[in-house]
Specification:
Layout: E1 4-9, H1 14-25, E2 29-34, H2 37-51, E3 55-59, H3 65-74, E4 79-85, H4 101-129, E5 132-136, H5 149-168, E6 175-181, E7 184-185, H6 188-192, H7 197-202, E8 210-211, H8 212-223, E9 233-236
Parallel strand pairs: 1-2, 1-4, 2-3, 4-5, 5-6, 6-9, 7-8
Helix pairs in contact: 1-2, 1-8, 3-4, 4-5
The structure holds NADP nicotinamide-adenine-dinucleotide phosphate.
Length: 252
């Protein structure tokens, strides 16, 4: 019998990596994608050794459309029943007029264009298996905040397209879940603040943020519902965070 795989984009760190760890425990074979292939190779070795599953890894830069096409060409014979469309980023936190155009462009390229093409090319696989698409949006897609402009816009796009996909895929058996996290302590802020570690750390200080595993557990819960049950949209926040900007921080 053909092996069936879960496809995770952005599996080299944070939420994607945590999903890979948890899905491996659940015995799922996986296709992992990110630019940092050496990290994926390490993860593959660990997961195959500890869980006896099959893991395929692909070093793909999602900002290069031809790399996305080539990747789907490479996996065209594979059966895929889960897509966790997770790879994404925020860059900068300046006010709209002061942001660098290159940063805007990059967020649009990854969070919108690559995200959309990955979903489109995965759908034939998912229709065949009556599979499940999990999109990672954000609380930033529900509420705008200062310095969030284009990032918030890209995540609102993810939320809306998730709803549109639900409608277009009705009758196919394919489920679509939109997961919207609040603050999760991953490499996200290091990327946003371009390697400024102190600034990145400060985002998660004074309260207990979410951890990548919290999101992965929520995703696994959605995946493990009966096929007739679709969790459409889940907003998951730290207890200490009540909105995009309202975080209760204890002073040091
Ligand atoms: N952390 C939060 O507070 C938070 C909150 C809400 C939503 N989210 C969303 O959650 C998702 C995952 O973020 P995270 O928090 O886990 O951050 P992270 O630790 O920085 O992980 C981001 C992942 O995306 C991949 N990625 C980025 N650019 C890529 C590219 N050009 N090509 C291929 N892969 C690329 C990275 O892999 P490589 O660098 O190896 O390519 C990495 O694996 C994102 O969509 C983010 O917007 C995060």
């Amino acid at each position: 019998m053909d092996q069936v795989y879960s496809l995770i984009t952005g599996a080299s760190s944070g939420i994607g990596e945590a999903c890979a760890l948890l899905l491996a425990k659940a015995g799922k074979n996986m296709i992992l994608l990110a630019r940092r292939k050496e990290r994926l190779e390490e993860l593959k070795n660990e997961l195959e050794k500890n869980h006896g599953i099959s893991v395929l890894v692909y070093g793909v830069d999602l900002s290069e459309p031809e790399q996305i096409e080539r990747f789907f060409d490479d996996i065209r014979e594979k059966k895929v029943d889960v897509l966790i469309n997770n790879a994404g980023l925020a860059l900068g936190k300046a006010s709209f007029e002061n942001c660098e155009w290159g940063d805007f462009n990059r967020m649009i390229e990854i969070n919108i264009k690559a995200f959309t093409r990955v979903a489109q090319l995965a759908i034939p696989h998912l229709k065949e298996t009556e599979g499940h698409i999990v999109n990672i949006s954000s609380v930033a897609g529900i509420e705008a905040y200062e310095g969030g402009s284009v990032y918030c816009g890209t995540k609102a796009y993810v939320k809306m397209i998730s709803k549109a996909l639900r409608i277009d895929l009705l009758g196919t058996g394919v489920r679509v879940t939109d997961i919207a996290p609040g603050a999760v302590d991953t490499e996200f802020s290091e990327v946003r603040f371009k390697g400024d570690e102190a600034l990145a750390k400060s985002v998660y200080q004074g309260y207990t943020p979410l951890y990548a595993q919290d999101i992965a557990e929520t995703i696994l819960f959605a995946l493990q519902r009966p096929k007739s049950v679709n969790l459409e949209s889940i907003l998951i926040m730290p207890t200490a965070q009540a909105s995009a900007r309202r975080v209760f921080k204890k002073s040091p």
